[in-house]
Structure formats: C-alpha cells, structure tokens
Amino acid sequence: MTRREFVRRVGRYGGAAATGAMLALDLLGKPSAALAAEEPVTPAGTRSAGGKRPRVLILGAGLCGMSAAYELGKLGYECELFEARGRAGGRCWTVRGGDRQTEVGGPEQTARFADGFYMNPGPARIPGHHTTTLAYCKEFGVQLEVFNNVNEAAYYLVKGLPRVRLREARADLRGYVDELLAKAVRRDALDRPMTAGDKEALIEYLRDDAGLSPDLLYKPSADRANFNRASESRGYVYQDLPAAGSHPGKISNALDFETVIKAGFGKHLGFEHQFDQQPTMFQPVGGIDQIARAFERRVGERIRYHTEVREIRKTSDGSVRLVVADQLEGSTREVFGDYCICTLPLSVLRDVSADFAPETADAIRQVPYEEVGKIGLHFKRRFWEEDDRIFGGISWTDQDITQLFYPNYGYLGGNGGVVIGYYQFGPDAEAVGKLSLAEREAHAIEQGEKLHPQYRAELRDSFSVAWQKIPYNLGGWAVWSEEARSALYPILNRPDGPIYLAGEHLTYLGGWMAGAFESAKAVVLSLHEASARA
Ligand code: PHE
After folding, report:
1. Domains parsed from the chain with CATH numbers
2. Secondary structure (DSSP) of 303-316
3. Ligand 1 centroid from CA 511, angstroms
C-alpha cells in the first residue's frame, strides 16, 4: 500500500484511529519533508461535489494559519489565507532598520536600527522541549543559536541595595537559607521525625549546596586562605579577577542575612526554574521571523495580503462565506469555502461580524488578553559586554521595566547592539503603553541607567511595541483563569459548524509559538476527520 493510499483509507475511518495513524505516519507530529514532496493526496469522502478538493479559508497568516495551510496542503486541501497586514507571521515578527509600525491611536514609528541589528518584539526564545517548533526549524533549514535565558553575570537590582550580579544574589540567598535550615536540623527544631542518619544526610546536602563552613555558617571569604565552595559560587569582583603573578583575585563579600531578606531577594530568582524557561533555549539566527519566512516561502502564494476579514458567515448548506476588504483597493468581496480556520486573536475576533453560535460568541468576548510591552534600545557601544562582561542573558530589577535582555548574537562587535530595555506585562505594560514613544524611551533610560550608568551616553535609538495597541493583535496573548479554562476553553475548541478557531489561545502553550503550531495540528486533524465523515 502506498503512503497515499494509506492516508486515504485512514481518512475514511476518522476519529481517534485516524489521529493515531496520522501521527504514526509522521504526519503533523513530525513534519515530514518526504511527504510534502509527494503528490497531494485527495481526502476521502469530502462534501465538495465532483471530486473537487475541499476549500479551507484560513483567517490570519501567522504561524498557526500558515502551518495549518502547509499541513492541509500535504493532505490535498485547497487553502486560501487572508492576512490584514502586508506581511505574514503575526507576532512572530522581527523589526529591522526601516520597518514601520503604527499603534492604535498612536504615531507612526520607523525603526532606525543599523544594518544587521534587530529586535524581536514578540516571541524571542524557544525551549528545547518545543518539539514541533524545532522540527519545523529542522525541516525548513532555519538555523538556530542558543538564547541565553540565564546568565549568572547579569545584574539583579532591587530597592535599597546596589546592583549585584545574579550569582551573588543567588549565592547569598541559598547560603543563608541553607545555613538556617542546617542549624534548625542540628537543634532538633524541625517538626518532622528524622533519624540521626537522616539529619546528617540533610546537613551534608545543605553544606554542599551552599558551601557552608564546618560550623554550618555561610561565609564566603574574600580571603584566599579561607577560600571555600561558598566563595567559589559567589565569585570574584570584576575589578580584581585571578591573573598571573601576585593576582590571585578577590572574592566578593556577601551581603548580610538581614539585608538579603529585607530586600526581598529571590523574587525573580526562581524564573529560570520554570519548565518553559530552563536552558537550553534557542533563537533563529538573524531574527525570530526566519521561522515565519520559511512558512511564507511554502504557502505565500496562497496568502491574500492587506485583506481584512469583515464578516464570517455560515451558509445554509453548511459551508462558509466571508466578506473581506482589500485594504489597498478599498473594495470588499465575498469568498466561499467548505471550512474556515479562524486564527484571529479573540481580542480582534470580538469585533468581527460573525454567525457564531451564541455560546461561542459569548466565550470569544470573555477571554481577556495580556498587555505586553518591549522596547529595543540600540546602543552605539556594547558596554554591557566591554565594561560589565555580560554576554547575553537577562538582568532583573524590581523597577517596572522588570528585565533587560542582552543580545545573544554579535558578541563584542564594533557597531553596538540592541538591548531589550523593558519586557513588561499587565498594569506596568499598560501604563507604559499609554506614554508617547519619547516618554517610553525616557522611562526605559531612567530606570535602566540604574543598572547601566553608560545608557545615556551610548544610546542611539529605540523602537517600542505595546502589544495591546498593535492593530490585529490587541494584546500579547490570551489569559486563562481556571474558571474560563473549564467553562469557555472547551466551547472555543469545538468547531462551530464549519468554523474552527485556532491559535496559541486555544492551547496549554499560551504565549508560545508552540501554541500556534500545536493548535494548527489539532485543528487540521479535527477538520480532516470531519471532512472524511462528510
Ligand atoms: N513565551 C513568552 C516568554 O517567554 C511569554 C510567556 C511568558 C509565556 C511566561 C508563558 C509564560 O516570555
């Protein structure tokens, strides 16, 4: 039996069997170049008369829409994508010199980054366990490099304290907490019943974890003679690193326990322990949009750019009618299809006239979106590398700018670089998003220069994005409360007649490119099963 025949037969069965079989076939699970190269397969038992291939109208040429079109194409469907912008990729977007963006009610902004420099206003990092994202990169030859999500040399700045290196903050926090626990165990101050052996084992672990002294104290020593594991973790002061001759290096002094606790240390220090944020993470070489462009090269002919969806209608024969507006010509027209995959963010879909079932329409209105903002600061000189020895990674602060991302490419290059000067969420992002472009820059500088006094002298230019004000996005990603997840999520994931909603918002991978891909996979399978049954 040929692969083609197999797919045809499987399509007839539908349901879980089809899903299993298609996954076994590498279809969708691991995108297969081999299959794509084959003649398109005509799906069995479709509604379209006269052996015509079923037509799928896809709203939005972001990663979800494009990957759905790509996979449906392999299965023999005819797809047409409608994209309001003049570019594909949606949030998978890279800004380079000359690129423009106008926010809702805001002035037009033109990026003035130098050649070879960019910022990723949206997605920027890929966890190693996002297998579909990485499989597409492999299939399309999108070159990857490491995204440094954790850099112990980056700064940590909280109120009332001078900036410290992340490694210093972490060593002190761990050191004192381990010390406390070790002492409590020694004094039998813990409630739990433990044997003497258990206690010794725990103390040994704590001693090792933080490098506690034999008397169970956290004492990193600036004195080379008392050098211990705690010293080793906390590290050397950068002005006096180990070198030749009479330069053994100077270990930095620990902060005291009270200071560490009062400063609320640790607020950001658990970030990289999240499953999604643990190294190794990746980024495409040259910008995140290399992924979008790879899809665009494959399905771009079927994308109608500058085409806004105005109406989504169900016809009496169970198919779909759209009214779309050509933004360049100012004209509207109707388009017909057997199915529709709608990947518009719910924040945008809300305002499109559509024949959704009342409960679907209601659910679409109820899911809120996160306010998210980033600013790219193009500096003339890579002072964070040259002066501070920070190569990639993230500095954290309790100021509302929240974090700085250093570029993970072009290390020690001569022409400066682009730092993400804030990456904020929720109310902070909302407030900064309301500022003018100049005010946003001033805000980023004012807070950022507390970590890097070089800021003001070295700034060349900036570009900022407030996702809640970006047309056709109106938010960073969907925010799911537990109640909404149980009451609304199942409704939105159910096809509404011939209309299938899809996107990161309909997954457990919200705010990740992986969400777009997984949603596309799920919807393609579900649509294919329905088509086989029809
Ligand atoms: N994926 C995005 C990021 O890494 C947004 C996100 C943050 C999503 C945290 C989920 C959790 O920043």
Report:
1. 1-30 (no CATH), 43-88+290-367+483-533 (3.50.50.60), 95-153+280-287+370-469 (3.90.660.10), 162-264 (1.20.1440.240)
2. EETTEEEEEEEE-T
3. 5
Q: Is the CB of 11 under 6 A from ligand 1?
A: no
From 374, 512, 517, 518, mutation site for ligand 1 pocket: most ligand atoms within 8 A of C-beta: 512
- Sign of the CA dihedral 336, 298, 348, 112? negative
Q: Kindly state if the Cβ of 511 falls inside 6 Å of ligand 1.
A: yes
Q: What is the DSSP letter of 145?
A: E
Residue owning the nearest CA to atom 10 of ligand 1: 511
What gap in Å lies between CA 382 and CA 270, rounded to an integer? 28
With a 6 Å cutoff on the Cβ, whether 369 touches ligand 1 is no
Q: How many CB atoms lie within 10 A of CB 291?
A: 27
pLDDT by residue, tens only, the chain of 534 residues: 444 444 444 444 444 444 444 544 455 444 444 334 344 444 544 444 456 799 999 999 999 999 999 999 999 999 999 999 999 999 999 999 999 999 999 889 999 999 999 999 999 999 999 999 999 999 999 999 999 999 999 999 999 899 999 999 999 999 999 999 999 998 888 877 889 999 999 999 999 999 999 999 999 887 777 778 898 899 999 999 999 999 989 888 899 999 888 888 877 788 889 999 999 999 999 999 999 999 999 999 999 999 999 999 999 999 999 999 999 999 999 999 999 999 999 999 999 999 999 999 999 999 999 999 999 999 999 999 999 999 999 999 999 999 999 999 999 999 999 999 999 999 999 999 999 999 999 999 999 999 999 999 999 999 999 999 999 999 999 999 999 999 999 999 999 999 999 999 999 999 999 999 999 999 999 999 999 988
Which residue's alpha carbon is nearest to atom 2 within ligand 1?
A: 511
pTM above 0.70, yes or no: yes
Alpha-carbon distance of 176 to 219, in angstroms, equals 9
Mutation pick for ligand 1 pocket among 281, 369, 477 (CB with most ligand atoms within 8 Å): 477
512: Cβ below 6 Å to ligand 1? yes
Q: What DSSP letter does each residue of 38-63 carry, written as one string?
A: SPPPPPSS-SSGGGPPPEEEEE--BH
Contact 475 CB / ligand 1 (< 6 Å): no
Q: Which of 63, 129, 276 to mutate to test the pocket of ligand 1 (most atoms within 8 A of CB)?
A: 276
CA 122/CA 374 separation, integer angstroms: 8
